[in-house]
């Protein structure tokens, strides 16, 4: 028995791979960043955030001042449950474009993480970021709804109710906001045992 050889690519597969590598190296950085952001956004739309992170990290390495890259990379991290990795990217984006509603909304989601697991401190950081987004655009989508959920989790039903009402003013077809308002109006405490705070 002889020594086993490592698997090799057929020669026909190597040349196109080398050609694409060489063309990527010769592509101007701004064009490459735009291409990578577009590919990353398409992967996010296809619900493939892990693959999007690869493209968007490359774009971020090339242009760490690009807010569109930050928003998409932060969003990909959030979708993967990597909230701690999203935070520094999105915090930097808030310094680059402090008037960008999407940056603040994504940063709030990163601060919050998974709502049932969020500490009061993380909830507060998320509330502050969401409020910053609302100061920029009172009708920004989903923000009132998300604040309603946080306040419901914090056992502040009056504040939750106000935000769910605002969510319906922003989007009258928001069935989730309607659902929570109905729960509040019926006085039903979902997901809580009797006597639980």
What is the topological layout?
Blueprint: H1 11-26, H2 29-45, H3 49-62, H4 67-79, H5 83-96, H6 101-112, H7 120-136, H8 143-153, H9 157-170, H10 175-186
Helix pairs in contact: 2-3, 2-4, 3-4, 4-5, 4-6, 5-6, 6-7, 7-8, 8-9, 9-10
- What form results from the Cα inertia axes? elongated
Strand content: under 5%
Integer average pLDDT? 87
Total number of beta strands: 0
Radius of gyration based on Cα positions: 22 Å
In DSSP terms (H or I, runs of 4 or more residues), the helix count works out at 10
Output the helix-strand order.
HHHHHHHHHH
Approximately how much helix is present in the residues?
A: over 70%
Q: Give the uncertain stretches in residue-range form.
A: 5-23, 191-197
Question: CA-to-CA gap between the ends?
Answer: 71 Å
Quaternary structure annotation:
single chain
Briefly note the structural class of the backbone.
Answer: mainly alpha
Main sheet makeup: none
How would you explain this protein's 3D organization?
With 197 residues, the protein is mainly alpha-helical. It is 71% helix and 0% strand. The protein contains 10 helices and no strands. Helix 7 packs antiparallel against helix 8, helix 8 runs antiparallel to helix 9 and helix 9 packs antiparallel against helix 10.
Provide keyphrases for this structure:
mainly alpha, 10 helices, 197 residues
Summarize the structure.
It contains ten helices and no strands.
